[in-house]
Amino acid sequence: MEKLLQMKKWKFMLSVVLAGMLLAAWTAHADSEIKVIIDGEEVKFEKSPVVEGGTTLVPFRVLFEKLGLSVVWVQETKTITGQSEDILLHLQLDNKTAVINGEEVELTAAPRVIDGSTYVPLRLVGEATGRVVKWDNATRTITIDAAPSAQESFDFEGFYRSFIEANNAEDLEAVLSAIHPESPLLEGGAFEAQLAENFRKYDIVTELDLFEVEDADESEAMLYTIERNINTNDRFHMDNQLELFLDLMKDENGEWKIYDLMVLDVQYLVSEDELKAEADIDQGLEKAVLGAVEAAYKAIAEEDIKALMDTIDPESPAYNEMKQSYSFLFMVLDFELNLEHANVIEATDTDAFVYTTETMKRVAGLEIADTRSKTVHQLKKQADGSWKLYLSYTVEDELLD
Question: Which of 65-74, 104-113, 287-296 has the highest mean pLDDT?
Answer without folding.
Answer: 287-296
